[in-house]
Predict the 3D structure of the following.
Amino acid sequence: MSSISAGLILGVESSCDETAAAVVRRGSEILSNVVASQIRIHSPYGGVVPELASREHLRNILPVVRAALAEAGTAYEELAAIAVTEGPGLAGALLVGISFAKALAFALGKPLVAVNHLEGHIHAVLLEEVKRAADDGEELRGATEPGPTLALVVSGGHTHLYHARLRTDKNGEPGVWTYRNVGRTVDDAAGEAFDKVAKLLGLGYPGGPWIDALAPYGNPEAVPFSFSQIKAKVHRRGEAGALDPAEGTYFSFSGIKTAMLRYTKVYEMGASIEARRAVLAGLADAKPADALPFCDQRTLDLIASFQRSVVDDLRRKTFRAAEKLHAERIIVSGGVAANRELRVRFTAEAGERDLPIAFPSMALSTDNAAMIAAAAWPKFLAGEFAAEGLTAEPGLRLGR
Ligand code: KG4
Ligand code: ZN
């Protein structure tokens, strides 16, 4: 079998704090998916330190790629193409993956496909749908021809809504996806809010999984947070940007972060927060369960209320946008899509509205390279290859 018909794509991802490589067959069958996390490196700082991230990517990239090929039982020569994240992300971090992928593609004489990280997150869902359909014996094609889709990409760097459509090519076969950006945050991303709030409360990094794990112990209705009229704020500041003001959906998560800070001051929670921080800092590999005995009920109620407010704001606006755009289904992806309450509440509302909804498996919710290889497949088939001058695009947008 030729390397092209085998359809093996090596994906490389290094946009933030995970160095990842994966081998995916024909955009849907994951043969390997290796992720080297830098959580331990950045944890003491409570956020990603760009210089440290680049250095770690450089250290990890070769072992991670070798591990991905070994796990897949694939030799370099068998690859049909190399795919790499072009942006958005940290410039220095992206450059490590891009330089590596360019050199590899050049040395092997294989095509290079550039992938937008946000499109990668969307494909984390699509690839699993196609695989499930194939496993169920359905035609692959049927599963790759969904109607207009509203995709919420919600991560540490992004809170974006896309109206996604699958275009058919000139032969009537499924071609590449096209995207229209119909929503975004005007300040912090939702995952960033989880991370900052966890840091504020003396919990670990990244904050999302900590808040997710501790929220079930609190009362989500204890502290009523309100989300201000963001649209008015955006228009006042003339920031409507590329979005159609009539159609655009705006998120804002900096206000709730400030409200949380104010709450901890009003209720004088500073000493207990510092005590919790000190205990966790003294543990080699602190987990949310280690924090639980050091959280009083007021703290747990605050955590639960924060999570409920953020999830409900995302849910309300996403479903409203889906209705307005007559989307036939919703997909939710990105690190925050791993949140259990988000999945439960989105699934419940989708059920009430009889609207199909899909999430990636937990492993594919956060950053990985399988999603990059999957997003590259339709581009590979369409002959959309990276230009020789490909470089990091830290502020890359998806769609128009
Ligand atoms: O997609 P991702 O791995 O990287 C970016 O592209 O940003 O997302 C990481 C973000 C972090 O902010 C992290 O706190 C959040 O996803 N996250 C979660 C959960 N797991 C990860 N947020 C809420 N609940 C979770 N279970
Ligand atoms: Zn991501």
Observations:
- The chain is about 45% helix and 20% strand.
